[in-house]
Amino acid sequence: MRSKKFVTILTLALVVTMLWGILPALGAYPVDVEGIRRDVIALKASGVGHTETPEPTSTPVETPEPTPTPTETPKPNPTPTPEPTATPEPTETPELPQPIEVRFEGVIEALPEGSYIGTWVVAGQGVQVTESTEIEGTPQVGVWVSVKANLYSDGSLVAIKIKVKTPKAVTVEFKATIKALPEDGLLGEWVIGDHTVTVDESTQIEGDTPDVGDWAEVKAQIQADGSLLALEIEVKDKENPPAQEVDFKGPITALPETADYTGVWTIGCCHQVTVTTSTIISGTPEVGLFVEVKALKEGPGAFVALEIVVEASPAEQNRYRFEGTVEALPSNGLIGQWQINGQPVMVDENTIIDQSNGPIGVGVKVEVEVQAPGGDGIPAAIRIEVLHPAHSGSQEVEIRGVIESLPEGESLLGTWVVAGEEIMVDANTEIHGVTPQVGLWAIVKAVPQDDGSLLAQHIEVKGHPHEGSLVEFTAQVISMPDGLIGEWQIGGYTVMVDENTEIEGSPAVGSMVKVEATIGEGGVLLALKIEVIEQG
What we know:
The protein is mainly β. The chain is 7% helix and 46% strand. The chain contains two helices and 36 strands. The chain starts with a helix and ends with a strand.
């Protein structure tokens, strides 16, 4: 019985000891230690065991400070989500240079084999002909053609239109020594003086039997390729030696009073030159003008003129040319005042009117050579040539060139002028490309109307011409520096003028000018020549 009590007491002691060791860990959970101690003493007093176990030394017990609840560790601020990196703007693909429209004339020197498509050589220039190229006439090597083409920045030319020019029959007459004849017979090429002349079955040969060294008087026709086809040849025996052929220059000091200038001219101080109906005269002779003379010397100071070339007179230096559409004609005949592209032009009986390409009429496209008037007078027409007849029918035409004017205000409906052509734009016209501005390049497809006007069906507006080679255009002077040297605005172009620029006329703001320029960096035009064709 005692042993059971002893075990019980021992067990309680062990429990107390264990509790004592873990009290600090209990912290906030208080334990009634004194109550447990009283229970142990009561058990001892009940007489359990023989030997008294000494009282344990009382150790003061301090209730430990409760361990503070740890402060909640602050959550770190969330790392801000980085802004998405902006996608870089795509690099703009540089716009391909827009072509520049050019025009020139010359002889066809080479053609592709078997087809017109390919590279032609005209006046020494390679021209690419495509399926889109409009060809008028029958091209062949040696004929004269006019070419309208697109000039690209790499210098290449792509033909828009090629027109075979049918030359007018021009007859020349000259006298010279026969230097060479065909080896077999008389048909073929003769060399007479400095000229090679073709003789065929239709050539009339008169006089002595031709031989090298004989004198020949020749009447020949200039062919399309510039060669001479003999119409008549009169041969004179070489035993009657011909006069010596000479060339000289000098001022005209006296002229005969004949209307056709036949008679004796005085050139310089001492040359007496006889001019006959066979003499070829280029230009308008006036006393004081300088001339080049090709003549036969008949004796000391005596000559028979074969050809005389007159230099430009002061009046001719004030001449200019322009192209346009005939807008109005005199009510009775052609003599009187015409209206061409808004420009009044006076036509008189001395005006040469070339209608070989079609009859004159309202709506006809013409080239005009005029004499600039003094003061505010009307220019006098020297020569008018029909370029092509008035538009008729419903066949669509295409016009490429610079926009020269647009309707006033914000609306694009109304009359545009593109490459010198007036074009009507209405609500049905489709306009594509960049915003139309004067000076920009445009491709227009239009339908001719009954009154000769053009109604645009489709217009594609391009940008400014890019860097390239040589460019020519006609436009109005928008602004210019006081001293001429510097930056001009002509049409939609910036044009740089320097001391090397040739300026003809007196340009002013509003003047219509013809510009020849090279294209510099950034599309700036470097003017070679500026010619005033209409005062502002």
